[in-house]
Design goal:
Elements lengths: L1 E5 L3 H13 L3 E5 L2 H10 L4 E5 L7 H11 L4 E4 L5 H10 L1
Parallel strand pairs: 1-2, 1-3, 3-4
Protein name: DNA-binding heavy metal response regulator
GO molecular function: phosphorelay response regulator activity; transcription cis-regulatory region binding
Organism: Pseudomonas syringae pv. actinidiae ICMP 19096
Length: about 90
């Protein structure tokens, strides 16, 4: 399984990449939204783990572009806990 991890926090990204790698998954990790969007559009992934709060292009913008072009499963990684954020995540992807 090939996973794209888009997470700007170094500690969280390293932890997830290490854990997923040790579990046998191939993980590409980027800390920048624009780079993550480029990777997602240029490669075939089985899953994208996407931080919502990224500098520059954020997770909401990334998922909007992705959904217009492909139907890859996306798992949102976020500290947002408001009802409106949950609804937006469900609506987008």
């Amino acid at each position: 399984m090939h996973i794209l991890l888009i997470e700007d926090d170094t500690k969280t990204g390293e932890y997830l990449k290490k854990g997923l790698g040790e579990s046998g998954y191939k993980v590409d990790w980027t800390q920048h939204g624009a780079d993550g969007l480029h990777l997602a559009l240029e490669n075939r992934y089985d899953l994208i783990v996407l931080d919502v709060m990224l500098p520059g292009i954020d997770g909401w913008q990334i998922i909007e572009v992705l959904r217009a072009r492909q139907d890859v499963p996306v798992l949102f990684l976020t500290a947002r806990d408001q009802l409106q954020d949950r609804i937006r995540g469900l609506e987008l992807g």
